[in-house]
Amino acid sequence: METYQVLGLIGTLFLLVGVFIPLFLAFSFIHHSIVAFGMLSFFFLLVFVTVPFVLGLVGSIIKDRKVAGILLILASVFSLPIFFGVFGISFVLLLIAGILALTKP
Question: What is the pTM for the complete model shown?
Answer without folding.
Answer: 0.79
